[in-house]
């Protein structure tokens, strides 16, 4: 890659939980809740917090403004359509921030131009030039997004990006708005823009991926490998339809696979679990049990083979430590797949010391119970072992 900004190995983490995440049906948050989430994101080291869409409602405007007023380190962004009134309102909301950003966007794909905007390609180019210039007159930090970039012909997309850079954009975001791209296509788009567009080295390129095909994180990483240096993401992958790229997955993929993805973020990963729990609580959106990094099973093992390996050395079945994401410990879940090693370990944890015969009887009793019961709790095991001990002493 030939660019200055994009040649850096630091990836800017842009969190949009409070904007794209909140657009998810049923996930709206109160002002107090948004302030709490923003405070945690900033403490966690998130570089840019997209606090909302100021023109959308008075409540949105006020929350963006209040978050902007309180932020000390993070850049606070307000979203605006390519409409002068939107941009003015976003500018007013972020003006109080120590570091404010206007994020303005317009659709560029033929599908959107024909069916939604009813504008020609030339008209959209004029709109980009005028609206980015307006935003740049209000703040120094302007992000421009090509909505539905991944369904836009690359030659036209390059003209749009060029117009935005010329008008003063400092970050260029190329969203996979409908979650349609594959990693290869998404990476190719960034490489093409960075190589072809004049002055591409003066801006930071950004990814913004939706998860309709379950590819949001893979696409974001492909974008970075191809020169993007900002990833837009949300806590728990909250967002429109199937959601956005999950911040915790992006951060841990970059940390865990630095050997093939040598890019750093400023995020304190040990706070990821706390952030996930907070966002789940304030939005009332449960986190799926098997969700990567923050799901309750992410560090749980039930299979006997896996439990045996874990008891010998955790690296046998864990590629990152629970502590690295803020989880206190691995859990060996007792169930019908558990073996003798895990059962012995559990008995030790519960304070039992059985002789070999009693242990075998207790283990057989446990296996029979686990076949009948979905969850075997510590209390079940205690009852079973106490029964064995009583029988043995009769
Ligand atoms: O998905 C998208 O295209 C967006 C833009 C507003 C950036 O959320
Ligand atoms: Zn989006």
UniProtKB/TrEMBL annotation:
Organism of origin: Terrihabitans rhizophilus
Entry keywords, A to Z: Acyltransferase, Amino-acid biosynthesis, Branched-chain amino acid biosynthesis, Cytoplasm, Leucine biosynthesis, Manganese, Metal-binding, Transferase
Pathway: Amino-acid biosynthesis; L-leucine biosynthesis; L-leucine from 3-methyl-2-oxobutanoate: step 1/4
Assembly notes: Homodimer.
EC annotation from Swiss-Prot or TrEMBL: 2.3.3.13
All residue ranges annotated as the Pyruvate carboxyltransferase domain in the record: 11-273
Catalytic activity from the UniProt record: 3-methyl-2-oxobutanoate + acetyl-CoA + H2O = (2S)-2-isopropylmalate + CoA + H(+)
Family membership noted in the UniProt record: Belongs to the alpha-IPM synthase/homocitrate synthase family. LeuA type 1 subfamily.
Function in brief: Catalyzes the condensation of the acetyl group of acetyl-CoA with 3-methyl-2-oxobutanoate (2-ketoisovalerate) to form 3-carboxy-3-hydroxy-4-methylpentanoate (2-isopropylmalate).
UniProt GO MF annotations: 2-isopropylmalate synthase activity
Organism taxonomic ancestry: Bacteria, Pseudomonadati, Pseudomonadota, Alphaproteobacteria, Hyphomicrobiales
Protein name, as recorded: 2-isopropylmalate synthase
Cofactor requirements of the protein: Mn(2+)
Amino-acid positions noted as binding Mn(2+) in the UniProt annotation, renumbered to this chain: 20, 208, 210, 244
């Amino acid at each position: 890659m030939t660019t200055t900004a994009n040649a850096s190995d630091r990836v800017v983490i842009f969190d949009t939980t409070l904007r794209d995440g909140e657009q998810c049906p049923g996930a709206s948050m109160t002002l107090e809740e948004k302030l709490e989430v923003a405070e945690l994101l900033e403490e966690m080291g998130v570089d840019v917090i997209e606090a909302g869409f100021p023109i959308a409602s008075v409540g949105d405007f006020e929350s963006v403004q209040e978050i902007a007023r309180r932020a000390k380190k993070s850049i606070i962004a307000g979203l605006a359509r390519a409409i002068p009134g939107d941009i003015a309102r976003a500018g007013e909301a972020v003006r109080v921030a120590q570091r404010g950003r206007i994020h303005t966007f317009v659709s560029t794909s033929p599908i959107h131009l024909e069916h939604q905007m009813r504008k020609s390609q030339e008209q959209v180019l004029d709109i980009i030039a005028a609206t980015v210039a307006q935003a740049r007159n209000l703040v120094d930090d302007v992000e421009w997004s090509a909505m539905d970039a991944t369904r836009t012909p690359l030659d036209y997309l390059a003209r749009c990006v060029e117009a935005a850079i010329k008008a003063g954009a400092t970050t260029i975001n190329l969203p996979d708005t409908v979650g349609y791209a594959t990693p290869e296509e998404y990476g190719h788009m960034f490489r093409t823009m960075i190589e072809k567009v004049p002055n591409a080295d003066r801006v930071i390129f950004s990814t913004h991926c939706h998860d309709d095909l379950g590819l949001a994180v893979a696409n974001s990483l492909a974008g970075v490998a191809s020169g993007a240096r900002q990833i837009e993401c949300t806590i728990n992958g909250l967002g429109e339809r199937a959601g956005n790229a999950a911040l915790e997955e992006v951060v841990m993929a970059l940390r865990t696979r630095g050997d093939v993805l040598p890019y750093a973020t400023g995020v304190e990963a040990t706070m990821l679990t706390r952030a996930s729990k907070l966002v789940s609580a304030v939005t009332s959106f449960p986190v799926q049990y098997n969700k990567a990094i923050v799901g309750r099973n992410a560090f749980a093992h039930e299979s006997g083979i896996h439990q045996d390996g874990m008891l010998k050395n955790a690296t046998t079945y864990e590629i990152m430590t629970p502590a690295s994401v803020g989880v206190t410990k691995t859990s060996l879940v007792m169930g019908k797949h558990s073996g003798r090693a895990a059962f012995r370990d559990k008995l030790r944890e519960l304070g039992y010391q059985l002789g070999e015969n009693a242990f075998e009887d207790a283990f057989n009793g446990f296996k029979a119970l686990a076949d009948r019961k979905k969850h075997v709790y510590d209390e079940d095991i205690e009852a079973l072992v106490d029964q064995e001990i009583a029988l043995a002493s009769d």
